[in-house]
Automatic annotation (TrEMBL):
It holds the Pfam family WG_beta_rep. This is WG repeat-containing protein. The keyword ATP-binding does not apply. It comes from the Bacteria. Residues 1-19 form the signal peptide. The keyword Coiled coil does not apply. PANTHER family: DUF3298 DOMAIN-CONTAINING PROTEIN, GLR2918 PROTEIN. Keywords: Signal.
Length: 197
């Protein structure tokens, strides 16, 4: 179900989100990276371990203390991105995941926090909805990690819980019919929700 996100992600990386902001480019000095404006003037001193270029939205993802963070052109820290595929989380349906104090939420392409970080894990959005969980953990499994334990629910893009976080698993979500197949007390049941304005 979530395998297709890899392909969507590659498309988005090549698209407008990571398109370079006009005139600002990264440069390296003594193993650290900073940014210069179109006149070659240093606007952010070399201090980062790795950088991506500034986007048209005026933000850049950089590595600081082994974490991918988002900054603006004034070098203001905006948020810490969720690490995915050894880089910042991808924008899917206009939102990407960020972490704050051990919890996960969603931000937009300007690195503005849209959905508060309040979940132990959140899957990317698909057809307007995302599966979230609390009490779950990321467990290493070879080169990857998997989610174990906890209770699961579903949120919409405004952060409203359309299915409470009380299921053992969310098996499938039908966004058009607003029905989810969930596992509760060891049984698979269907849960319907109403559209919210």
């Amino acid at each position: 179900m979530y395998q297709k996100y890899f392909y969507i992600s590659l498309f988005l990386m090549a698209g407008s989100l990571f398109a370079q902001s006009k005139g600002i480019t990264s440069f390296e000095e003594n193993g650290l990276y900073g940014f210069k404006n179109k006149k070659g003037k240093v606007i952010i001193e070399p201090q980062y371990e790795q950088t991506m270029e500034f986007t048209k939205s005026g933000v850049a993802f950089v590595v600081s203390k082994n974490k991918w963070i988002c900054i603006d052109t004034k070098n203001k820290f905006l948020l810490e991105s969720f690490l995915y595929d050894n880089g910042p989380d991808y924008i899917v349906e206009s939102l990407a995941r960020y972490v704050e104090e051990g919890k996960m939420g969603f931000h937009n392409e300007r690195c503005q926090k849209v959905i508060e970080a309040q979940y132990d894990f959140a899957y990317p959005f698909e057809n307007g909805y995302a599966i979230v969980c609390n009490g779950c953990e990321l467990k290493p499994e070879g080169e990857h990690k998997r989610i174990v334990g906890g209770k699961y629910g579903v949120i919409d893009k405004k952060g409203n819980l359309v299915i409470p976080i009380d299921s053992e698993a969310i098996i499938s979500v039908d966004a058009k019919k607003r029905i989810a197949e969930v596992k509760q007390d060891g049984k698979t049941v269907k849960v319907k929700w109403k559209a919210r304005s």
